[in-house]
């Protein structure tokens, strides 16, 4: 066999081998790296891989450690964790619940709206699901909600943080896509490509994020009309209504101002996402202080959470680098290129196939692993086929949002299970999420058919 | 001995006019001249390692060659700036005179010896453009607080003039100008700058770059592996590099003026000269920087600066009495 | 067995301490970056070294804390099968994973980074940006620290696996005890991830 073919064969096997080994349950970052090293050793044996290529690892690592764009990640995580500790979400959920309680489906609507708002202030998915699971789930169950609807709404709304900016996933995607885009365009002789930045992805994801909010709301309204039993109203006693509006303003206005300041300055091109994130983080500390929630203990919890979450994500990136080095240098790039370039349906077919693969991977992996593995090897081909990078990034973001929701391994489900009452069957959570996964697929189809929903805002801002 | 393949990492994007193209052509020429006995495979910026880790990749054996500019590695030794070009320093011709006949290459070898690599000049952009500015410059006051992308010692000069200086990779500059993160930027010259689209955001294009009077690129090779090659392959690498130094310069000399015409005629760019006050204050700043390098505690930095300044004092006399005087005369009197 | 228990406890204690200390760098990132923003937007001035500083703090933080995160079991697992599995099965998976995945990975990172880091020390490498931070060699050393701290925590996990498989669950240090019920695992995960 030709060495080139052996290399490509090994690269292909490695991709599937990794998925197999991941099922063992050892941490993803190290499984990725370890299995890749194993395949690298086999490649060495066949003379199709040169171990000196691992010398590029420290160079790549120091590249991540000195990357200006990626610093936005810990900053936004800090902001999110701090906001969570200042219990803004709790207050919003309680007052919003009272505000909409008189409506059928009102509690569901309030969960979606609060989810959207928290999403716009942070990208921390788990915390949102947990908070809503602790506060709104018991309220909805008490009110007689169908547990399937209640859990579905909470999981889906809780994951909006991934797509509604600011989002840590979009930061990584922006960093990767901007590099790949400029390489691809220059290779094609276009030296002034329309650049892609994290800010562009944020702008591109705003309307699709709102579209999802709209789709979820429409579903709850639909349920309220067709199946009133599933989401009864929860009348609020008049004495509680008295100061409701004021209570609501106190809960709503400060975080809303923070959101407007952070997102506005990024989308308005006034500040880079990193700069805006630091302002957001300081703003979150101020909000916490105003609520007398900025104690040493809370600060301590915040820094520890921020550091470990950041480390967890970056370590996946470090592990995935080993995969990239081995995969690329054994000829995997060619393999992917040949596969994606020769699909029926051309560019659209290629994007559809990549989306389908990512969706399937979403059943067992979560967002970060998928983008760190799949984007570096497929995006160069897709962008070379003239796929709009911002559209691609946002589409991937919405697609992978479902990875949080798809059983058996969906983080949102897992978190909610952890805080849901013990007598609530897990199957209710799994069944409850299905309509929302379908809605998610509908949203992806809409974005596929009308790319303008993604590209309109970034272009408007760029002028 | 069988055929061998070497990996060349570059700091340039693939097919980038002048520089990236030059790196690829250099690789192809080595492959062709050796009849395939030494095949050079090019990895453009970021393909194997991040662009600014290219030299480290060679030192570590991840690649056998790197194509870039010595001043990117000024954090390894400040002396390396001299082998690319320094503010108010030598033009390309003057630089090769120093390198080939006045001790430059020997000092460079001594510096790179510490890292087990060997450098060859491998390309040259000629004197660069001064940069793109959103607003017209009136004097040193108009520089204060200006957010300006310009790397290396040139950046330090502009810092002394009052600008807020940052460095960013080629692909990020346009976005930063557009979003207002930058008020001004310089990259290379019309040939590259047209490609990068800066004209869409800035209309004032200033000349000349007194901070980058010439920019030499380098080919760095793993010294041990280089010396283990048969003599003819060594000669091929050396001579192809020398030929490419000239070839890349020709590319820029032919295409810079064409690109400039396009910028002016098709895109309405205003060509401007820096106000005298900026040139003058910039010269003072550049002299301070060069002096501080000559007084460095690091003996190799000191030695490089001394050798450079000694050579510079000699070669500039020829440029002044002959080349400069000729160009002035031609541009004053001769029309055709 | 007691020796294994002691080793695991000692390593975990060290990573815990390092995690506690280096987590505070996240506050440092926030504050330094905020200062840069204020200087830039309110005073139209900036310092390259300050811009380097908050970026480097992130690099130092996520490498230094990686071992601590492993101690807390915060690194994402695909736990379809792992989570509901018996403790002995989980111990076996961890044993295999440490030996075949984690230790080879940290070894490769260590072996290929050591010359890279030593070289950086040999000339006290600073920032690639003119006017940037001094001490890039210190930041580069964090790659070694990353590999070593992870490998050590891996060894602690190895000790734990042997203790569990050897029937001495009681000797597993409390800081790294396996959650008994899946529900506990969930509750624990909520503390950290995402
Ligand atoms: Na978000
Ligand atoms: Na330049």
UniProtKB/TrEMBL annotation, chain A:
Annotated membrane topology: Multi-pass membrane protein
Subcellular location(s) of the protein: Cell inner membrane
Xref: InterPro entries: DctM, TRAP_DctM
Principal cellular location given in the protein's record: membrane
Pfam families with a match to the protein in the record: DctM
GO cellular component, as recorded: plasma membrane
Molecular-function GO term, any one: transmembrane transporter activity
Record domain TRAP C4-dicarboxylate transport system permease DctM subunit: where: 17-452
Keyword Transport annotated: yes
Transmembrane segments: 5-24, 30-49, 61-83, 107-137, 149-173, 201-222, 243-270, 276-294, 306-330, 350-383, 390-416, 436-457
Alphabetical UniProt keywords: Cell inner membrane, Cell membrane, Membrane, Transmembrane, Transmembrane helix, Transport
Classification via NCBIfam families: dctM
Family designation: Belongs to the TRAP transporter large permease family.
Record function comment: Part of the tripartite ATP-independent periplasmic (TRAP) transport system.
Subunit structure: The complex comprises the extracytoplasmic solute receptor protein and the two transmembrane proteins.
Name of the protein in question: TRAP transporter large permease protein
Protein source organism: Pseudooceanicola sediminis
TrEMBL record, chain C:
Primary residence: membrane
GO molecular function, one term: transmembrane transporter activity
Location within or outside the cell: Cell inner membrane
InterPro entries, sorted: DctQ, TRAP_DctQ
Membrane topology summary: Multi-pass membrane protein
Keywords, ordered alphabetically: Cell inner membrane, Cell membrane, Membrane, Transmembrane, Transmembrane helix, Transport
Pfam families linked: DctQ
Every Tripartite ATP-independent periplasmic transporters DctQ component domain range: 29-162
GO CC annotations on file: plasma membrane
Keyword Cytoplasm: no
Record's subunit section: The complex comprises the extracytoplasmic solute receptor protein and the two transmembrane proteins.
Family of this protein: Belongs to the TRAP transporter small permease family.
Function: Part of the tripartite ATP-independent periplasmic (TRAP) transport system.
Protein name in UniProt: TRAP transporter small permease protein
Organism: Pseudooceanicola sediminis
